[in-house]
Amino acid sequence: MPMMTRAGYTPPKADPKKPPRAQTPKKKKKKRKKGLSGAAVVSLIIFAAAALIGAGTIYVYTQTQPYLAAFAPGTMLMGYPLQGATRMDAEALIDTIAAEYVQPWQAEIVCMNQTYTITAQDIGLAVDKEATLEPLWAAAREGGMMARYAQMLRMRSEPVIMQPVLTYDLEPVDAILEIIRADVECESVDATVVFHPGSAQPFVFTDEQNGYALDTSHVKAEIERGIARLNAACVTLEPEVIEPKVYRAVLENSLSLRARLVTKLEGGEAAVTNASLAAEQLARLCVEPGAALSFNETVGVRSQERGYLTAPEPAYGPDVSGVGGGVCQTSTALYRAALLAGIEVSERSAAVRPVDYCPMGQEAAVSDQGLDLVLRNQTDAKLFITSRVYVQDDDTMLEIMIIGDELGRRYALESLIDETGTIEEPIYVRDREGRYAKYADERIPVGEALTGYTADVERIDLGEDGQEIARTIVSQNVYEAVAPTIYVGTAQRE
Fold first, then answer.
1. CA neighbor of 416 nearest in space, from 369, 377, 471
2. How far is the C-alpha of 355 from the C-alpha of 336, rounded, in Å?
3. Are 160 and 75 contacting, i.e. CB atoms less than 8 angstroms apart?
4. How many alpha carbons lie under 13 Å from residue 375 in its C-beta half-sphere?
5. Residue pair 450/420 in contact by the 8 Å Cβ criterion
6. How far apart are CA 316 and CA 319, in angstroms?
7. What b/e sequence results for 193-203 when a residue is b if at least 16 CB atoms lie within 10 Å of its CB, and e otherwise?
8. Is 483 domain-assigned?
């Protein structure tokens, strides 16, 4: 036990028998750091997120709220920004655009030094305000606030731009095009030549005239392009020139009269009328080298609608009539003129019986149901055919001329005729319909016996002095003899 002395505390003496006690080092105590728990961190994050969301919502609200009753940023009308403008402001802008661009708009159509103007008022050009503004007003208005804001962000790089939606009516353009066509379009006019034999100036010419045709199919499209851009439109029309088939210079350089035939038109008034109508279609014809001329195609169908009348058709036999009867006189005159002009005849038909308006065998029977007269220009130059009908000494005359290169010779025609006999034995026909004979003991002669003939037509080649050089057979024609016809009735007398 420790004892206290004057000197103070006396430490106890060590026991020599006991070993000294080893001292173990003291462990240092770790200091605990004070921090936030996990729950606190989560709370802080939630709070921060809520704060950010709130701030973002407020920001988006402040960005979208001003445009609930106005046009959104990024909306433009014809280059004018509409951001923040009201609907009334936009309509006022349209009125300004209309006054500046729409109302002064006009288009011009220029044709052959003539200008035709079309104004905005003519076509009722105007701006459809509703159709123009609706797509701009609808921009950035779909969905909720965030969706609208997203659309506004996209419109910063992809603005919504509109041009004015225009209304108009192009019917007045059609009316003006009709006026232009009436002013410009016309058929070409061929040069003509009339032969006056025995006069100091035997050939009298008329000048040719160009015709014009217009293609206006593109005009309205070009005007509409100008309307869409609100730019003045100017369309120039270049008429297509329709050249005449016959030029005066060509006629003057082809002055050789290869053939001229004048014949009197026979038959009644109807037959003369029909022949004259057909002759009108032959008045100014041009046949190109190597080309063919069909009488039926040139004259056309002989119908009452075209003015043709019912008249006798002697080329088809006695007592035969039909619409267009008498036209064979015109085809015959053309055929004979072609033979005299040395023109090739590709197709021709003889009449059933000889006719009285030309020498036997020189006729050309035609029918718009089949029989045709076809000539072919085998020369190296154009052939011109003219025809006219005129009155001389109370007779109606038909003149046909064929003009072309110098023929170099003259021709004449001659018919060599032989009789082939007559049939004396009559043909008896039972008249079951009673048209001529009613009773069985009646014998009524209806058709007399007709003599048969053959007719060879020769073309005589004449020299300059009019002397015969050669002969060529151009046709051989046979006209069969016809027996007399007697009708016998069928009824018995009571």
1. 471
2. 14
3. yes
4. 29
5. no
6. 9
7. beeeeeeeeee
8. yes
Q: What DSSP string runs through 197-246? A: TTSSS-EEEE--B-EEE---TTHHHHHHHHHHHT--EEEEE-PEEE--S-
Q: Confirm if 328 and 274 have CB atoms less than 8 A apart.
A: no
Last residue of a domain, one of 219, 242, 265: 242
pLDDT at 3: 44
How far apart, in whole angstroms, are the C-alpha atoms of residue 280 and residue 299?
8
451 neighbors 356 (Cβ within 8 angstroms): no
Predicted local confidence at residue 8, as pLDDT: 38
In the listed set 374, 408, 442, which residue is the last one of a domain according to the structure? 408
In the prediction, which pLDDT does 20 show? 53
Instruction: Say which amino acid occupies 60.
Output: V
Residue 225, pLDDT score: 93
396 and 264 in a common domain: yes
Residue 481's domain is classified under what CATH number?
Answer: 2.20.230
Which residues does the chain have with pLDDT short of 50? 1-11, 14, 198
Residue 454's Cβ-side half-sphere holds a number of Cα atoms within 13 Å equal to 5
Position 19 scores a pLDDT of 53
Buried b (16+ CB within 10 A) or exposed e, 396-406: bebbbbbbbbe
Q: Are residues 132 and 75 in contact, defined by beta-carbon separation less than 8 angstroms?
A: no
Q: Are both 329 and 266 inside the same structural domain?
A: yes
Q: Which residues contact residue 240 at a Cβ distance below 8 angstroms, ignoring those fewer than 6 apart?
A: 212, 213, 214, 215
Residues 6+ apart with CB under 8 A from 164: 77, 78, 94, 97, 98, 102, 127, 128, 132, 230
pLDDT digits (tens, 9 = 90+) for 363-372: 999 998 889 9
Q: Which domain holds residue 209?
A: 171-242
Structure-block tokens of residue 76: 């433009």
Give the model's pLDDT for residue 2: 41
Q: Which pTM was predicted?
A: 0.53
Q: What is the pLDDT of residue 105?
A: 95
| Total length of the chain | 494
**Would you state the pLDDT for residue 15?**
52
Question: pLDDT at position 6, please?
Answer: 38
C-beta atoms surrounding 306 within 10 Å: 12
Instruction: Give me the pLDDT at residue 21, please.
Output: 55
Q: At what angle do helices 269-280 and 328-340 cross, to 10 degrees?
A: 50
